[in-house]
Specification:
Helix content: 25-40%
Strand content: 25-35%
Shape: extended
Strand order of the largest sheet: 18-17-16-15-21-20-19-24
Length: 704
């Protein structure tokens, strides 16, 4: 038996909603941490005096009672866990884990018993159900009945609104009404907020951002009363989750943020955060409405009867003492301007993002608090409206995404270093680490909108192209696409027209002959274009070579496709791909390394097979065909050129035509057409020289 027992996916019922978390039994205490809120329940081992094992809706559960009167219930255990938990309790807590059977008869008459904070309804001395009295919001009495109303939880699918108990008249004790006695027992432990007595202290006219307005805050021993001109809110200290004290970017104001679970409600509006705004220069002299002895006994030196200082310090100090929770302040992060926050926008409203030691908090509309442990990954993306800013995206393990936009590009380095130091998973680390040094490159033009996803796809495509190039035969280059070719063809057509018109002027040719030459030149260009078309076709792949290896993702997908189908019956092929992509992104680094190793091994096998295939002469057939086709095409082109020259001589152009072309070449005109014509003729002459060297047969034909 070890020193600790740990259980994952253990559920705790909170006002009708099941919240999962982790439970740990150690020699010193019992600790439960909620996955939803991060709230920790710590039960010292010395206070445990009750432990029951019960059959519940989610399997088996444990009910723990303490000497202070608190009851804790945890569900989600398996039947096999009973033995080891029972032995651990006997060895470390000196408490026996007893098995408790629940009544499942479904009767609606029985005996009501009040045990600490619980109302038990027993049928034949077996408990049928329990009602935590802290969930009761109101208790009303009738002639022979008592009605209990409950606090509502927005996370529940089905809510219990009220329960009515019929209390028959008692003959034994006529001095006390049994209905009133029942109601008093309920109210003694119920969470019914009643402003009895005087407030400990009152803060007048405080500026509140959510809910918006000016409120008087009255501090009572068990709850906080916000009194405004329109609305009143009563907030029990048990619903306070966290306290934050955050400096404003202007260094003249302070935010005091109170995180609430469950939230305060006004109609259909829910306020999960209470945000107060203070000026640092505002001071107050505070006197508590308690005697000095009561203050010392109640707060143990945390507060004194008379205090003075900044208003925000007094409010935070009093709240910390009454709620008994630590106040979270920003850590070591400093932005570009030296502030501990970053100006950004969330949901079209501007606010401040505070990187904390264990999370992020955004103030203020709407407020957002994200803990590091619930963050799946973060992403840096370029701004959608301007290139002078970037977006910071946070994705949680529950699949929610939060985008904080319009962050100044100067903040990038500080924020990236902070996220990296906290070891958060950066989604686009591979392609964005260079952004830190090159962030100024995309600030030149506000019109240049960047698509982070598109850039990532381009980079991955470039990697694939490099892999494809290595598979093709060495010595071959793809000459089928030449962006300058069509422009040269157009320039040649234009120059040929100009050449023909100039030659007719110089040599005295008739208009008919000039038109015929234009037509012949145009036909020649069109014919050459048609003959070039086959060169633009993609080269054929060598089908006889070894098959290219699959990537790590494809190997994983092939092994997981059937499992995804079985877990999601009726899912389409498109949905399978989408689901697989989400699952692959959520895989841990160790799981991905396994498939990347397999992909690397497959790549090495492929390279080895490809090398052997080339050494055996594979892949050379298509290359030789293409070379012969290329040389044949050049011969045909040369023959057409020589034939065209003879035809010009027969039509009477002779040396005049040649002179006219020379005249154009030596002309002082600086038009674009002349320049393009020269470059085209130079290209043709280079081709002719190359042809003369590479194909002797063609040279002999010309000399003949």
């Amino acid at each position: 038996m070890g020193d600790t027992l740990e259980f994952n996916e253990i559920y705790q019922e909170v006002k009708g909603s099941w919240n999962d978390g982790r439970l740990r039994f150690s020699k010193q205490n019992v600790v439960y941490k909620s996955s939803k809120t991060g709230k920790v329940d710590n039960i010292p081992a010395g206070e445990l005096n009750l432990a029951q094992w019960r059959r519940v809706c989610l399997g088996h559960g444990i009910k723990l009672g303490t000497s202070t009167g608190h009851i804790y219930k945890y569900d989600g255990f398996r039947d096999t866990d009973l033995e080891k938990i029972s032995e651990f309790f006997k060895a470390n807590y000196k408490v026996e884990l007893t098995e408790k059977d629940m009544c499942v008869k479904g009767w609606n008459w029985g005996t009501a018993k009040f045990t600490g904070p619980l109302l038990l309804f027993d049928v034949n001395e077996s408990t049928a159900f329990e009602v935590p009295l802290s969930n009761v919001s109101q208790c009303a009495t009738g002639k022979n009945e008592v009605t209990l109303e409950f606090h509502q939880n927005d996370d529940t699918e089905v809510s219990l609104m009220e329960v009515r108990f019929y209390v028959p008249p008692s003959q034994a004790d006529e001095r006390q009404d049994p209905v009133e006695a029942f109601a008093q027992n309920v109210l003694s432990k119920a969470d019914v907020i009643q402003a009895t007595g005087d407030a400990v202290c009152i803060f007048k006219e405080l500026q509140c951002l959510t809910p918006r307005g000016r409120y008087d805050i009255r501090i009572y021993p068990t709850f906080l009363h916000l009194h405004g001109k329109t609305f009143d809110y009563k907030i029990p200290y048990t619903t306070v989750l966290r306290l934050f004290l955050l400096p404003h970017k202007d260094q003249r104001q302070m935010f005091f943020v109170i995180s609430l679970d469950p939230p305060i409600k006004q109609g259909q509006t829910r306020y999960h955060f209470l945000i107060l705004l203070f000026s640092k220069e505002e001071d107050i002299n505070l006197t508590l409405n308690m005697s000095e002895e009561d203050v010392e006994r109640r707060f143990e030196g945390k507060l004194s009867k008379n205090m003075s200082g900044s208003l925000y310090e007094m409010v935070s100090r009093v709240m910390k003492a009454l709620v008994n929770r630590k106040i979270t302040v920003p850590g070591n992060f400093q932005g570009h301007s030296g502030a501990q926050c970053i100006t950004c926008s969330y949901k079209a409203s501007s606010g401040l993002l505070y990187p904390l030691e264990r999370g992020f908090i955004y103030v203020h509309k709407p407020p957002v608090h994200l803990r590091f442990e619930e963050i799946s990954c973060v992403n840096f993306a370029r701004g959608t409206t301007t290139t002078r800013s970037f977006d910071f995206e946070i994705e949680t393990k529950q699949g929610n995404q939060y985008t904080f936009s319009s962050i100044e590009r100067e903040e990038y380095g500080k924020l990236f270093d902070f996220v990296n130091a906290k070891k958060l998973n950066i989604k686009n680390r591979g392609f964005k680490e260079g952004m830190k040094g090159k962030i100024d490159e995309y600030s030149d033009s506000d019109d240049d909108q960047h698509d982070a996803y598109l850039e990532r796809m381009k980079a991955e495509g470039k990697i694939r192209e490099e892999g494809n190039d290595s598979d093709e035969s060495d010595g071959e280059s793809d000459e089928s696409f030449n962006p300058g070719e069509e422009d040269d063809d157009i320039a040649e057509e234009y120059d040929s027209n100009a050449s023909a018109s100039d030659s007719s002027d110089e040599g005295g040719e008739s208009e008919d002959e000039s038109a015929k030459k234009k037509k012949a030149k145009k036909a020649k260009v069109v014919k050459e274009k048609k003959e070039r078309k086959p060169r633009k076709e993609k080269k054929q792949k060598d089908t006889g070579g070894p098959k290219r290896p699959m990537s790590a993702y494809m190997l994983w997908l092939n092994s997981s496709r059937e499992r995804i189908k079985s877990e999601n019956p009726g899912i389409s092929i498109t949905e399978i791909s989408k689901k697989a992509g989400e699952m692959w992104r959520q895989l841990g680094r160790e799981e991905k390394e396994e498939w990347e190793t397999k992909a690397g091994e497959a790549k090495r096998q492929y390279d080895k097979a490809k090398k052997e295939y080339k050494e055996s002469g594979g892949g050379s057939t298509s290359s030789s065909k293409k070379e012969s086709k290329k040389s044949g095409g050049k011969k045909e082109e040369k023959k057409r050129k020589s034939a065209g020259g003879d035809k010009d001589k027969e039509r009477g152009g002779g040396n005049d035509s040649f002179k006219s072309r020379e005249f154009i070449e030596t002309s002082e005109s600086s038009s674009d057409s002349d320049h393009k014509s020269k470059s085209k003729r130079k290209k043709e002459s280079d081709d002719e020289e190359e042809e003369a060297v590479s194909t002797p047969a063609s040279s002999e034909e010309e000399s003949d």
